[in-house]
User: What shape does this take?
Amino acid sequence: MPKIQKVTDPAKRVTDPVVLGQLDREGIDPNFVEFFQDYAPRWRKRPDGTHYRVKGCSPFAKFYFDRVSGKRFMVTSNLPMVKAEGHKIEPGWLYAREKYYSKANLFSAIVEGKQAQLTCLSDQPDGTKKGARVTYKPQLFIDGIEIINGSEPRLLPTDPINPNYKENTLEWTYGAIAERRIRIFEGRYRDRFFVLSHPHGRVSVKNNCVGNLKLKLGSAVDAKGNPLKVSVIGDEEIVEASEFDRAVFPVQIGATLTVYPDTNAAGVDGQVARNIGAGDTWAAIRDGAGTYAVDDITDNYCHYIISDDENDKWDQVRRAPLVLDCSDLGAGAIVSAGTLSLYGWTKEDTGGWTPTTNIYACNPASNTALVAADFGTFGTTPYCDTAITYAGWNDAGYNAFVYNATGIAAIPNDDVHKVGTRNANYDVADSPPTWAADKAAGVGYYGVEEGVGFKPKLVITYTVLQTVTPSSVPTASSIQAPSVSGSGSSPITLSPVAVPSAVQAPSVSGSGSASIAPSPVQAVSAVNGVVSATGVASIYPDPIITTSSVMVPVTTMTCRAPELEREVAELLLALEPTAHFEV
Assistant: This one.
């Protein structure tokens, strides 16, 4: 058998610390793990204009392959990194002709003075159509008096939220009262007024929208993610003065737009809560209906508990849903491990409660947005055997939730993965912490809104099950196959193969579809038309592979990589000169 080579190409070596952590937990040498599939659109266009889905490609995920064990690794998040046609998204602004233009993204944005124009560039899961557009020019009022500022924005050299982004944020200053910022990154447009201190009056933002592209309005949160009640009348957002009394500043209010690469895309994260300012019993605060949801802020809490100033009463219980797209694993994927990694940004425990954190099932009503009712859709069976302690929570790095058998079984290979974080030792246990007046505890993580370098990531370890459907039974004792065409690439050529006697694997090479390093097939036999093989094989997939069925004149054959995958592929290709294969 040829010696398995280490990965030497710097562009194909593993550098993602989350992936390296997964490899370390599984005892896999990263020197033999190859990065083989970058972010890519999952839909391709045929010459006739119709589209087909490409397995193993995702705008949300990267893929890796272990040359030794044959295991594969998918790293998925909620942040799309490429456009529908495959161009890399470039968050940022360009200035020309006294206007700011967005760089390559899933939407087009043009800002002139205080006015912005947005255009959706692809059909959306919610029914929004490509070409939908809105123009708007927001005004800020306090107690009905407009706060005036200079009309021209300033382009910030570095994103104030995430230093990994450059020149992606425009800023206006409204005296000492507020700032307005338009921040763009992958598939996200966020226009926010940041109220810097108590306004001592009613705050309203009148957006003056014109067009058929709908902006999301009605979200207001303080610096700790606590919600403020917002009334939306037409396109005006209104927050009463009393809502600011308990807020931690700055408070952000404003419009958002989230755009996905295609109509089948999914993914969202955020937080949901039952928030009762007047105080409630533990049973009511834990089991009652949710009162708020937010899915467009950077600083989420995995969970948060707030006590009231009245004896044995509670103001809030908070939880955090996540929806991750795993559909590009493909129907043949067999998942063996999973780890959800969340980048911590804070932890707080003024009550001395030392809360713990774990992952549980959650079933949001939508795959792209959160609503208050999602608060009641959490399960109580942990997806990890050990909850992360309060002391163990990393508030300046990734926290790894290693899935147990229950969590692994919940990872679909052709659908979305719906999970959520919640407090384990009080919320899930249904046992309130020791009450003390006006105390709080929780741990926070960066949601997808923070962007690259901080986004949640799910690493999935899997193998591929190959199933072949027969077309007929061979009658000849030997079949010669001088050449075979592989889908999506240059022809694949192999030497003659004899069946059913012993087979020596020929030299095989391919371009653009798969690269196969053969080893001898130790034994091949045919009994009643059923072909079986024994041996050791490894198969190395290349970046983009076109899927199709393999039809050969045998009955039924099933093979699990890496043990027999390559030998069976060679044998089947030899039996059907025009076959295509999928890896």
The chain has a mean pLDDT of 84. The radius of gyration is 27 Å. Helices lie at 17-25, 282-287, 405-409, 424-428, 565-575. Residues 471-575 form one domain.
